[in-house]
Amino acid sequence: MDEQQARIRSRQNAWNVLHHRSFAAGVELYKQHVARYPADAAAAYMQIGNAVFNRTHSFTRSEPWYLKALAINPDHEGALNTLANHYRGTPQGADYEQCHVAALRKHGWIGPADCDDVRGWDDYWSLNFRNALKLREFGYDTSSLLIRKLRQRGCRTVLCVGNGIHLEPRAFACAGLTVTALDLSPRATEFAAAFDFTVAQLLRFDYFVQLDADDVLLSQLLRAAPPVTYSAGSLFDAALCPGPYDAIVTRRTLQLFDGQQTLAAAARLLARLAPNGLLVNHSHNGQRFQRELHSYLTAQGVWIAAYDALVNPAAALPPERQVFVRIRSSG
Asked: Which residues pair with 305 in a beta bridge?
């Protein structure tokens, strides 16, 4: 195992223990990880802060960890966003929000003002592709939870909407799912389809770390995975990726729309979803549109499930209905 793979395994093991096994043991593993990989310190402190808040629901107890992350990386988008949201409506919150937006612009993490601007999204993803190459970050911490839930529910086909350059569809495919990825940006689609997905990237996903498999077996999984179908175009184009799909995963996509356009986008997703399909929506600023979206989905007969439905293997979801699960992150 090379150093990069060892780093990924160490980080994912710390994350898994912190969030799903033992808080104290997870913190200790993160400390050991940071001692070996100091460049990961800010991200580690952010994860510990999130775990503290999830356990205690006390921002007073989690805030010191966010501040430690900022002390190491003043542009840490997640910490700035979390602090800005907590202090919203105060001068301190305004300062954090200003720093948050500046950090987003500095790193090219704010997309075009017009969410239908294909060229703008091409430029956005071109910059993010270069950043991701440096950071080797193309996935999400919740991807492994999704893989487990999709397999538990018996899902076989998945549509990833607003996928960008992320490698989550490839991880889904390595878990035995038939995957289609749809994004408005042709450049992002080209990047994602052409990227050389290796064991090192596969180990970015905790699901495969927990298999405790050697590199030979993981390489076999890569070779055996069905190819992902990549499509470039608008989710409003009913002819693209018509489905039906057992599951649809949207990553920070519905939050781009406003008002009735959000509901129209949700309608296009439901039209592609199987009658008992699972719709998973990940957003940063979900509170802005969540109430209207939930009301619309409920009116369509969709079951609204809490995030615990992904975390808890025993969480029951109605097998005969469409189900909506929201993932909310701070950055």
From this structure: 325
What pLDDT, on the 0 to 100 scale, is given for residue 136?
45
- What pLDDT score was predicted for residue 287? 52
Q: Which residues of the chain have pLDDT under 50?
A: 134-137
Contacts 24+ apart (CB under 8 A), 1-7: 1/215, 2/200, 4/136, 4/200, 5/199, 5/200, 5/203, 5/215, 7/36, 7/37, 7/40
Quote the tokens at residue 243.
């489905």
Q: What is the CATH number of domain 3-109?
A: 1.25.40.10
183 contacts 189 by C-beta, under 8 angstroms: yes
Q: What is the pTM of this model?
A: 0.72
pLDDT value, residue 272: 97
User: 17: helix, coil or strand?
Assistant: helix
Lookup result for tokens 């070996």: 36
Domain residue ranges of the chain, discontinuous segments joined by +: 3-109, 143-328
Q: Phi, psi (5° rounding) for residue 249? A: -120, 120
CA–CA gap between residue 200 and residue 171 (Å, rounded)? 12
- What count of other Cβ atoms lies within 10 Å of the Cβ of residue 324? 25
- Phi, psi torsion values for 223, nearest 5 degrees: -70, -30
Q: What is the pLDDT of residue 258?
A: 79
> What residues contact 239, with CB distance under 8 A and at least 6 apart?
none
Residue 330 is encoded by which pair of tokens?
Answer: 């701070």
**Exposure string over 28-56, b if 16+ CB within 10 A, otherwise e:** ebbeebbeebeebbbbbbbbbbbbbbeee
Sorted by sequence, the CB contacts under 8 Å of residue 180 that are 6+ apart come out as: 157, 158, 159, 160, 169, 228, 229, 230, 231, 241, 245
The one-letter amino acid code at 83 reads: L
In CATH, which of 3.40.1390.20, 3.30.565.10, 3.40.50.150, 3.10.20.310 is domain 143-328? 3.40.50.150
